[in-house]
Design brief:
CATH architecture of the largest domain: 4-Layer Sandwich
Largest sheet: 6 strands, mixed
CATH superfamily of the largest domain: Metallo-dependent phosphatases
Structural class: alpha/beta
Number of domains: 2
Number of helices: 6
Helix content: 25-40%
CATH class of the largest domain: Alpha Beta
Number of strands: 13
Strand content: 15-25%
CATH topology of the largest domain: Purple Acid Phosphatase, chain A, domain 2
Strand order of the largest sheet: 6-5-4-1-12-13
Radius of gyration: 28 Å
Distance between the termini: 84 Å
Shape: elongated
């Protein structure tokens, strides 16, 4: 007759069985985790092109378009929805938002530097608030003289430009057009070159020529309307085979007959049709396709304000935009950059 086993021996055997089972379970879990990691890696490699990781998209060369419009340096906006009105926008805030936008541009370039071979900076007008001659109450929104606004914008923009040129040793082309806020002597017959925005471009041009003479910023150029040009307010250029057209004011509604007629005039009234139209003015961001032309309306640094509300523009946060253009796709991808601070 078998003698009963000692209790300690029974528990010891059970513990050993449990330990072996736990070890086997942990081993199976580890193997399953490794298998999942291998599967995830294969999935990632197989779908990397579609996941928005532009550095690994493909080998097709791209142009990066940085679109800046309606910076309104010199304007002060108060938030009236608070118990006591607070300043929502002013020159320091405009400077911060522009620097933030360029930070996004730096990041995008780093992610895409294997394929980006050109950067086009589009200045689309209303870079300062102006001298107060647009509407009667404008003088109450201005916190600096027009010349002071010009200096503030140039200092901010040129600082960001230098930083961009340091990390991007490729051609950086600035295409600049004036807006309506910079117009001088409103209501009188005037030379279209009499625009505060144009003075900004001349300052940037002068500073570039000075720096190039000292061996710096040789990869940067600027083009802006001058008296010898056919158009004093518009600019066209070609990138990756596509025609880009800059015009500050386009119709607020591009889908109406008048809006489509304006688009047709812009598209057709040149030797070559426009493929991309970049515009601003309404402080509202939008992307539309009219026929075969892509129209990008850029928001503003100040964001949705009373002007945008009065003209019934669609609501937009403060922001600017980035577009990638390739030989096969005129808008490979489009990024509206929100610069609103909560």
């Amino acid at each position: 007759m078998n003698q009963p086993q000692d209790t300690d021996d029974i528990f010891s055997g059970v513990k050993q069985l449990l330990s072996e089972e736990e070890s086997a379970t942990r081993k199976r879990i580890k193997q399953a985790r490794l298998a999942l990691l291998d599967a995830a890696q294969l999935i990632f490699q197989g779908t990397e092109k579609d996941r928005g990781y532009p550095k690994h998209m493909d080998t097709e060369q791209m142009s990066m378009l940085l679109n800046l419009s309606d910076s309104h340096f010199g304007k002060e906006i108060h938030d009236m929805n608070t118990n006591s009105p607070v300043v929502k926008f002013n020159i320091p805030e405009a400077t911060r938002k522009q620097a933030d936008f360029f930070s996004y541009a730096f990041h995008e370039y780093e992610m895409n530097k294997d394929t980006i071979d050109e950067i086009n900076i589009n200045l689309i007008g209303d870079h300062i608030e102006g001298d107060g001659s647009i509407f009667p109450a404008q003088v109450f929104e201005i916190i600096d003289s027009a010349t002071g606004q010009v200096v503030s914008f140039v200092e901010s923009f040129y600082s960001n430009l230098i930083n961009l040129a340091k990390i991007a040793p490729i051609p950086i082309n600035i295409y600049a057009i004036p807006g309506n806020h910079g117009e001088m002597r409103r209501g009188y017959i005037k030379n279209p070159s009499d625009n505060w925005d144009t003075l900004i471009f001349k300052f940037i041009d002068y500073m570039l020529r000075r720096d190039k003479a000292n061996g710096n910023l040789k990869n940067v150029s600027i083009t802006y309307p001058h008296p010898d040009m056919k158009d004093k307010k518009h600019i066209r250029y070609k990138t990756k085979g596509w025609i880009v057209h800059l015009e500050h004011i386009m119709p607020p509604n591009l889908t109406t007959p008048s809006g489509q007629h304006k688009i047709q005039n812009v598209v057709l009234n040149y030797d070559e049709k426009a493929d991309i139209i970049l515009t601003g003015h309404y402080h509202s961001e939008s992307l539309a396709t009219i026929g075969r032309t892509t129209v990008v309306r850029v928001s503003s640094l100040g964001g949705f304000d009373q002007f945008a509300n009065d003209i019934k523009a669609s609501f937009s946060e403060a922001g600017q935009s980035i577009i990638m253009v390739s030989p096969s796709q005129k808008v490979k991808y489009y990024m509206p950059i929100c610069l609103e601070k909560r």
